[in-house]
Amino acid sequence: MKKAKFIKQIMIYGVILLVSSLISELVNQIWPGFPMPPALIGMILLYVLLTLKIVKLEQVEGVSNFFVQIISLIFIPSGVALVTKLDVLKAEGVQIIIVVVMSTLMLLLFTAGISWVLIKVKEAVIARQQRRTIEVEED
Predict the structure, then answer these.
(1) Nearest Cα to 60, choosing from 125, 135, 7, 139?
(2) Who wins on pLDDT, 138 or 71?
(3) Is 60 helix (H, G, I), strand (E, B) or coil?
(4) Cα(53)–Cα(61) distance, integer angstroms
(5) Quick check: 21 and 38 in contact, CB under 8 A?
(6) Could you tell me what percent of the chain has a pLDDT over 70?
(7) 18 near 10, Cβ under 8 Å?
């Protein structure tokens, strides 16, 4: 990959991270009891930009592939932080595991429910379009 193209892709990610950080701070100012992580806002923002074709996949594909290749390195600091809190894990490890398992199951069920609703909506839209096509052909 060309160096200039890679730098442009990094700049796109940088702008997305900057905007997501600003949005996170704004949400924190407006609604202090509801912290929004900038990484989550950044993912949503990138998804919206890709869906609306404001940012094309080719414009972020190289850096995305690079991040996927080094993802294990990204988790090293959190692993080290986890090791430094072994006393907390000994004291409350079972509760933490229960919370993680329950929240994972809730997330899976919620995602499955949203996917099911979206599939049903898509099927209804396609069926409506097919009925209109048939009605137009009959006229």
Answers:
(1) 7
(2) 71
(3) coil
(4) 14
(5) yes
(6) 99
(7) no
What's the whole-number mean pLDDT along residues 108-134?
A: 92
- Helix intervals (H) in 1-139: 3-30, 38-51, 61-69, 71-74, 76-84, 86-138
First to last CA, the chain: 55
Q: Write the CB contacts of 39 (distance below 8 Å, at least 6 apart in sequence).
A: 20
* Nearest to 128, CA basis, from 113, 114, 136: 136
- Return the pLDDT at 110: 93
Residue with tokens 């898509």: 122
Whole-angstrom distance, CA of residue 39 vs CA of residue 34: 15
User: What is the reported pTM?
Assistant: 0.57
Provide the pLDDT confidence category of residue 1 given band limits of 50, 70 and 90: low
Residue 10 near residue 63, CB atoms below 8 Å: yes
**CA–CA gap between residue 111 and residue 105 (Å, rounded):** 10
Q: Give the whole-angstrom CA distance, residue 99 versus residue 104.
A: 8
* Residue in the structure block whose two tokens are 């996949």: 57
